[in-house]
Each structure stands twice: as C-alpha cells, then as structure tokens.
Amino acid sequence: MKIIIVKNSAAGGKKASELFKQAYNDGARVFGLATGSTPITTYECLVKSDIDFSDCISINLDEYVGLKSTDPQSYRYYMEKNLFIAKPFKKSFLPKGDALDAVEEVQRYDKVIEDNPIDLQLLGIGRNGHIGFNEPGSSFKLKTHKVALTDSTIEANARFFENEQDVPKFAYSMGIGSIMKSKSIILEAFGEDKAEAIAKMVKGPLSEACPASVLQEHDNVTVIIDEAAAIKL
Ligand code: GLP
Predict the structure, then answer these.
(1) Least buried of 15, 64, 154, 176, by fewest C-beta within 10 Å?
(2) ipTM for the complex?
(3) Is the CB of 125 under 6 A from ligand 1?
C-alpha cells in the first residue's frame, strides 16, 4: 500500500483528483465511485478539472435498499448532484434501490461489473473498517449482495437523515471480491474517527473482522489520509 498523508481533506481531494487525471491519461475509462462525506472534496476537484468523462463509465459501490433514485438521500441523487451534473459519463451505474427483485438486481449489477472491468476504484472507509457496505464479517469472496447494515453504520450515517429511524436498514453493495478485481484503488479517510480503522487496515491482521484489511493483498492501492486519520499508524 502506498500511503500519502496530507494536511486536510481539501489537499486529499486534490491529490485524488490528480490520480484520476493520471489514470485517465494512462487509458482508464471505467471508474468505480464512492459516496459519503469523504469523497466530496475529490468530486469538487474533478468538477473543476479539465477531465472529460463523456467517454467513460462509472460504477458506484452501493445504494440503500428502498430509496428511489429521486430521493435526496439516495446515492444516485448524491452522485448526480456532486459529480454527474457537471461531469457526465457515457453511462453511470448504481444499484437500483427500488428494484422489485433483489436477486435479479444483484445479478444485473454483477453483470455490469463483469462487462466493464474497473480501472480505478475510489473508496472511503467506515469507522468499523467497512468498504462499500461490506460490514465486518463479510466474506472476502462476495460479489454484489444485499446487506443488513450494522448499528454502527446506521448511527454514523444518521447525520445525513432527519432522524436515525429514517436510515435504511439494508443496502446493495458491490462485494469485496469485485472490489479486489479493480486494477487500481484509491482509499481516502479524513478525521480522527477513522484512525482506528486505518491502523487496522494497514497494520492489522488480514481478517474479515476488518473488511478493509483485504486491501493488504492488492498490489495497486493508494491510501490518502489526513494527519488525524494517520495518528494510530
Ligand atoms: C458509508 C458508505 C461507504 C463510505 C463510508 C464512510 O456507509 N457506504 O462507501 O465509505 O460509509 O462514509 P463517510 O465518508 O461519510 O465517513
């Protein structure tokens, strides 16, 4: 793992967007994208950049089960607002939160990922070490699946909702098996509440108890963290 320690999330976003640009110039055309508060500065920099994604495909990590794409809390809405409006892709895929049949939906999404191998995957990390919505205990072999969110994740994501009861209890998530097939990965984390997860990811045992520790096995991972997220390294 290559670890880059930056001053703050603004500097981290700038660095990540530069790596996107470099990947694009090197031929990357399929980008795996993430949501949450962490990648916001990256998207701000990408919006201001001269990268043209109109010949690219984006594939997001996850989506809440039960939310329509027009719901302001959905990850589709987040992506439209923070990136796609300003920088449209040729095609942008996310799991469909309102899909009627969960089994069909995960199969559809796996086919999307198989048909469009990801060149560069952007990741955040949960306080419990989750990536995408692959919670502790998830098999490293999993493909797309429907997952029950842990209390810790529901509590952490409640800040985006009016109250905690509104946070969906299930999500569709790309599996760790699929994430690991990405040719390259950037993981970002900012703030002290991510320090424990970052230390376990980098130094801890390779264990399903910390899903992000699987990245120790990938040969092209760049970790961009601020000083606060690095304090336990
Ligand atoms: C969410 C998302 C993850 C994200 C993580 C951290 O649950 N599913 O993809 O990386 O939690 O979120 P944040 O960046 O807001 O801290």
Answers:
(1) 154
(2) 0.96
(3) yes
Domain that holds residue 185: 2-226
Number of domains forming the structure of the chain: 1
Domain harbouring 92, CATH code: 3.40.50.1360
Pocket test for ligand 1, best of 42, 157, 173, 226 (most atoms within 8 A of CB): 157
157 lines ligand 1 (CB under 6 A): yes
Q: Which ligand 1 atom is the nearest neighbour of the CA of 39? A: 14
22 found inside a domain = yes
104-124 residue pLDDT tens: 999 999 999 999 999 999 999
Alpha helices by DSSP H, the chain: 9-25, 40-48, 75-79, 102-115, 151-157, 176-179, 195-203
What are the pLDDT digits (tens) for 153-203?
899 899 999 989 999 999 999 999 999 999 999 999 999 999 999 999 999
Torsions phi, psi for 120 (to 5 deg): -140, 125
